[in-house]
Amino acid sequence: MRSLVVLLYIALWAFVTATYHNPRLPKTITPCHYDLKVQTHIQDIGNSHFEGSVGIVLKVLQNTDQIVLHAQNLTINEPTIKLERLMNSQIISIVSTEFNPSLDYFVIQTSKKLQKASLYYLNIEFAAQLTNTNLGYFIENLEPGNPMKRSWATVTQFERVGARYAFPCFDEPALKATFSVSLGHHKNYTSLSNTEKYGVRYQDHNIDYIWSDFKTTPKMSTYLLAYSLNQFSHISSQTQGPNSIKFRTWVHSDALQNATYVAEVTPKILQYFEKLFEIPFPMSKLDQLIMPTFKFNGMENWGLIVYREASILYNPGDIKQKQEVARLIAHELAHMWWGNLVTMSWWGDVWLKEGFSTYFSAIAVDHVHPEWQYFLESYGELQLDAFDYDDKKRINKVSISHSVVQSNTDEWEKDISVFYHKAASVIGMMSAILGRDAFYDGLRSYLKDNAYGSTTQDQLWNHLQLASDRVGALDKAYNIRTIMESWTLQRGYPCIKVQRNYQTNEVTVSQNHFANDTKSCWWVPLSFTTQSESNFSNTRPRLWLNCNAKGMAEPVTVNLKSSENEWIVFNIQSMGHYRVDYDPRNLKMISDSLLLPDHGGIHFLNRGQLIRDCMYFAKLQPKRLNQTLDLLTYLSKEREYIPWKMFKDNSAKLLAIMSPEATQKFGAEIIQPLYRKVDDLNGGNSDVILRPLIEELACKFKVKKCV
């Protein structure tokens, strides 16, 4: 009886110590390399499945007798698990294994402690069903509306937590490793993975199945691994120069003609990024796989980008769609550096990849299509989207850089505007603060010094500070980390109040949290110009709103060298991520200038900003309605897209303070003059995208009858 009790105690002790409940993996082991073999059996959904093995080279960072890795919805063949010390081929016995389903952990208890600085090889066999969940390794029916015709393709989606559904792994972004992939499949399927295929061999005992072997990847995160089986056709293209990169754009044959633009523009954008970042793309090929019902617009797997068909195929003649296709391609290609080469250490800093990819996608589209003026127009739109997100979610908002314990994909998608659009807007402001030379110098050194590694925003600030110091971009009194963390670690945004004293010719500028949170303070770069200067090209700050030692906001007063009868406009080209609220007299002078033939020389982005902000403040304080309508009246003479887009997207604010009849009447009055000339809107890019917007507004405000 005593021996049974002792054995029971030992068994319970082993079970308890094997359990690991921390939401982050322990820092005792890191993966160095994965040998992944996956055999896929494609049949009907419900019967399709895969099995395989993964061999992981482990480096021990601290002595431990426990290996914790991720696995979810996998059947693991526990008796076949093998652990070997590479130095002497010593086999380490496995005492027990355990699943922790709440955290997706698979815990292995070893018979002896693994030794610090030693390398071990862990081999695990696994199997799972192929489902159509759009997570992990899954299958798509390419003919869902045709029960008589069955056509299948498989693909992976591993960001953020999908890799653990496909094979046991250390599924955190900082735990980078190299991967050697072998795919077993029927010979009638094309196999793709991140790298080039170097060999094909028939499988033993089944001449209809082959193994496709792929070259070892660069060091990368698990969420960037990808593979697919399909029967698609492709278009080939390549970059120019001696070390050209080969591209293949894969899509089902019926849609091949609509993928021509994708194949043509992709090499141009990639080559532009190579020159811009001064770092070559580290692979010899890049495949683009277009799937009919892929959940996301695109996924930046290194060397194998996956797109959703509806988001990437282009119908010639639709300029707005063509712009969105170019932007999406540029976004995913920017990730080859921002996210793939240099990866955030944890998902709380996902803006380091998504914000920069959003920002640089607009710049790249500007490069390949300069006639579109895409950066300026898209920047105004993404900034508005970021403001709208904060305005609608005054509670439970997140900051750009934030604390997140678990990588919950659904929660992340709710706040996507923060990590993409708001982050990109703040990056644009950062560029304006530093100037082009220091900005790019800092970013290039950040990418080069952290290549194939992972970072937090701290490393970014360090490189930008050094770059700023080298060229004297900022006065020594200003610190990049202090400035930028007031934007990345705080929720919301500031509203800037501009109050002029027309007797002393002084202007006082102050800040408030948009939702009146008095505890918040930002370091705000203030660019401005006066009517006599009319300099809308200099976006660098001329003044700062500072935070004192207690973190409280301090106003700033400056004497203007201009007439009291001329306007002043702040936030040149709207490069600062804030709204501007003017005193009534200054706003009236701006409104009068906007009615002039050249709109007083005020930049179209600032015209859009004025519309956006005035309509926002009018909703908060309805007594300002007449001032706002006075400013909006000039729109009847406006021919640029962004001001009209700002009016359209903020028009609901008028309905909040005006009757439907009054709103409809006012809207019709300003739209009608331009709508009468809508057939003349066939000039440049702004006209091409402005025309459908004006027609939409004409319907909305009943200028014309619409179905």
Rounded Rg: 29 Å
What class do helices, strands and sheet pairing give?
A: alpha+beta
Number of helices: 17
Please name the CATH architecture of the largest domain: Sandwich
Distance between the termini: 86 Å
| CATH level 1 class label of the largest domain | Mainly Beta
From the 3D structure, determine the CATH topology of the largest domain: Immunoglobulin-like
What oligomeric state do the depicted chains represent?
single chain
What is the strand tally?
Answer: 31
Return residue spans where pLDDT drops below 50 for at least 5 consecutive residues.
1-18
Query: Can you say what the CATH homologous superfamily of the largest domain is?
Result: tricorn interacting facor f3 domain
Global outline: globular
How would you describe what is shown here?
The chain is an alpha+beta fold. The protein has five domains: 1-231, Sandwich (Immunoglobulin-like), CATH 2.60.40; 232-336, Orthogonal Bundle (Neutral Protease, domain 2), CATH 1.10.390.10; 341-488, Neutral Protease Domain 2 (Neutral Protease, domain 2); 493-582, Immunoglobulin-like, CATH 2.60.40.1910; 589-707, TorD-like, CATH 1.10.3480.20. 34% of the residues lie in helices and 26% in strands. It is built from 17 helices and 31 strands. The strands form nine sheets. Strands 1, 2, 4, 5, 6, 9, 12, 14 and 15 form a nine-stranded mixed beta sheet that branches. Helix 6 (374-392) runs parallel beside helix 15 (641-655) and helix 8 (416-434) crosses helix 9. The longest helix is centred in the middle third of the chain and has 19 residues, at 374-392. The relative contact order is 0.06.
